[in-house]
């Protein structure tokens, strides 16, 4: 993997194509919940009606698009970030029959999907393991503190888990991908975006 430093965040370059670089934060930058709800039925939230694990309506998407985007980047830097149409269908989750997939979204800052997190350069568990910043730890990031995975943390994916309306997918501290409650506040956040080169 190639690393660059931009805007006081260390980014991993995942791909360079058509004058843009797809990048992901090298470290977990913050700790946030996916959604603050344990509803098992569809309900109205963030401008629409859907399940708690609907990425399009999630609190984490709103936080990335608004709070993180406006805090991490100044106006010049924001002009260098391209919006991306994201596939959020069942095909990008752990199950092609996942009833909790949602419609596509257009976002400048986003989380990886389950399907992306199992492809290169994260095609094995060791490569998916990640650690957080001191800031993320102060915000409540869970940190495992024993054995081979000492210092590793969970990081959140945008994909809903297929087993429960209030479960989302996340990368575990050992690099495996699991489902967990959307209202768990100790997930690490690893933003992804496209920069114009």
Any overview of this molecule?
- The protein is an alpha+beta fold.
- It has one domain (29-191).
- It has 5 helices and 14 strands.
- The protein has helices spanning 59-72, 75-79, 114-117, 125-128, 134-138, and strands at residues 2-6, 9-17, 20-25, 30-31, 43-45, 48-50, 81-82, 84-86, 105-107, 155-160, 167-171, 177-181, 188-189, 192-196.
- The strands form 5 sheets. Strands 1-2-3-14-7 form a 5-stranded antiparallel sheet. Strands 10-11-12 form a 3-stranded antiparallel sheet, with no helix packed on it.
- A hairpin with a 2-residue loop joins strand 1 (2-6) and strand 2 (9-17).
- It is globular.
- The two termini are 18 Å apart.
- Residues 1-7 have low confidence and may be disordered.
Determine the number of helices (DSSP H or I, runs of at least 4 residues). 5
Low-confidence regions: 1-7
Content of β-strand: 25-35%
**Count of DSSP strands:** 14
Choose one word for the global shape: globular
Give the proportion of residues in helices. 10-25%
Please tell me how large the radius of gyration is.
Answer: 16 Å
First and last CA, distance: 18 Å
Question: How much is the average pLDDT?
Answer: 94
Estimated structural class: alpha+beta
**Sequence of strands across the biggest β-sheet:** 1-2-3-14-7
Describe the largest sheet: 5 strands, antiparallel
Secondary-structure element order, as H and E? EEEEEEHHEEEHHHEEEEE
Question: What is the number of independent domains?
Answer: 1
């Amino acid at each position: 993997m190639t690393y660059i430093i931009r805007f006081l965040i260390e980014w991993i370059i995942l791909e360079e194509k058509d004058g843009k670089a797809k990048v992901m934060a090298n470290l977990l930058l913050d700790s946030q919940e996916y959604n603050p709800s344990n509803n098992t039925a569809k309900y109205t939230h963030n401008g629409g009606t859907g399940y708690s694990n609907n990425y399009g309506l999630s609190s984490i998407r709103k936080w990335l698009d608004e709070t993180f985007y406006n805090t991490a980047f100044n106006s010049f830097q924001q002009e260098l970030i391209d919006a991306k149409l994201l596939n959020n269908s069942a095909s990008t989750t752990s199950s092609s029959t996942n009833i909790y997939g949602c419609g596509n979204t257009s976002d400048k800052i986003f989380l990886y999907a389950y399907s992306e997190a199992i492809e290169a350069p994260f095609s094995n568990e060791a490569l998916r393991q990640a650690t957080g910043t001191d800031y993320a730890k102060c915000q409540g990031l869970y940190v495992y503190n024993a054995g081979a995975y000492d210092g590793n943390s969970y990081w959140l994916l945008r994909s809903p888990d297929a087993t429960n309306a209030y479960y989302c997918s996340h990368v575990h501290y050992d690099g495996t991908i699991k489902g967990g409650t959307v209202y768990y506040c100790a997930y690490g956040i690893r933003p992804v975006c496209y920069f114009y080169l």
